[in-house]
Amino acid sequence: MRVMIDAGHGGYDPGATSNGLKEKDLTLKLALDVAEDLESLYGIEVLLTRTEDVFISLEDRVLKGNTAEVDYFVSLHHNAGGGTGFESYIYPGYQQTQTGVMQERLHQWLSTFYQQYMIRDRGRKQADFYVLRHTLMPAILLENLFVDTLDDASFLKDPVFLRQLATEIAKGIYQAVA
């Protein structure tokens, strides 16, 4: 089993920024921790789209996953726009495929984790995101909390919470691919 973890944004593309947080920094830290847990706890081979603060185009992110022939592509992001909570995305029309089954498993695992913090589950969604449309394997994009909402930002600033979130994402990925 091989999984590609995509730390969204990077380099000159900060992603969402607010409350002293930069999405690119959060996604990189999360990706590195998720990869560590997947490898050490579950023996899953992990490839990363980036391991440092550099810009990588969407095309190159997808190319890395497709060329490596990974079994699952997981793109990590944080939201902005005044909302709260988390959500997951797959490519439209894939609900009844392996991608949809994997989304359901991973999303449900994270929903249970977030419930203990009274964090809103915004649902399983579909979108025509580049990394979902062009990957050749099942792919999911996770939006973990809003950097521009004070309650969500307070969780994202807590290193203990972030480390626990990484562990739960890794467990959820393991559940999804099992």
What can you see in these coordinates?
- By secondary structure, the chain is an alpha/beta fold.
- The chain has a single domain (2-177), classed as Zn-dependent exopeptidases (Aminopeptidase), CATH 3.40.630.
- It is built from 6 helices and 8 strands.
- It has helices spanning 23-42, 58-68, 98-115, 130-133, 150-156, 159-177; strands spanning 2-7, 17-18, 21-22, 45-48, 72-79, 86-90, 121-126, 139-146.
- The protein has a 6-stranded mixed sheet with strand order 4-1-5-8-6-7, with helices on both faces. It has a two-stranded antiparallel ribbon with strand order 2-3.
- Helix 3 (98-115) links the parallel strand 6 and strand 7 (121-126).
- Helix 1 (23-42) packs across helix 6 (159-177) and helix 3 (98-115) runs antiparallel to helix 6.
- The longest helix has 20 residues, at 23-42.
- The mean pLDDT is 98.
